[in-house]
Amino acid sequence: MEKKDQIQKMFNDISGRYDLLNHLLSLGIDYTWRRKFVSQLSHFTPKKVLDVATGTGDLAILVGSLASVQQVVGIDNASNMLAIAKDKVLRNKLKENVAFRDGDAEAIPFPDGSFDAVTVAFGVRNYEDLEKGLAEMRRVLRDSGVMMILEFSHPEAIPWKQLYGFYAKYIIPLIGRLVSKHKQAYTYLPESVSAFPSGKDFTKILSKLGVKNVTRRTLTFGIATIYSGEK
Q1: What gap in Å lies between CA 132 and CA 101, rounded to an integer?
Q2: Which CATH entry fits the domain spanning 3-155+197-230: 3.40.50.1460, 3.40.50.150, 3.30.565.10, 3.30.1850.10?
Q3: How does pLDDT run across 117-147, given as a tens digit for each residue?
């Protein structure tokens, strides 16, 4: 089974407890990260936004609350996650400007230049072909449109590097297994973060693909990073 199929199955399997585990394992900090991300996005005043690897839709729904945003489309290939996202939209009465549909991050089902902004939160490290997925995000942006990515990264300063390393290696898999009842899902998380080319290595990849004005902003001692760039 290819990585893409394995990840799709994994997220479908844990979808019912995905939000609970995200908030539990991040000690609720993920709420703050998303708010800071959306606040930064607001400076670009996008009207039409694509949220890739949208999962259960938390970021897409926050983006939909921005004054400038007229339409948000969230895509994901995990149908169980999308079902939860669609239910959230109905409960938040955002049906008119937030929509979700099945879609592959590495073959985005929209024409070139369709969006003012493309976002993704904690999804790019799951791409089977990272550069292909990023190139697709850039492709569907209009000229001067903004690409923004929120992803886990590697704390570099002592003692946060050591503390986070211990937490990710031992605590996350333990709590993840107990709550999700899925043996692999929360072992995969720290492994995927460790393998991801974060920080300067990731900004170099974006620049290589033609993304301009690339910036990065670290959050919570470097546990997460916001990357931004323009087409």
Answers
A1: 20
A2: 3.40.50.150
A3: 999 999 999 899 999 999 999 999 999 999 9
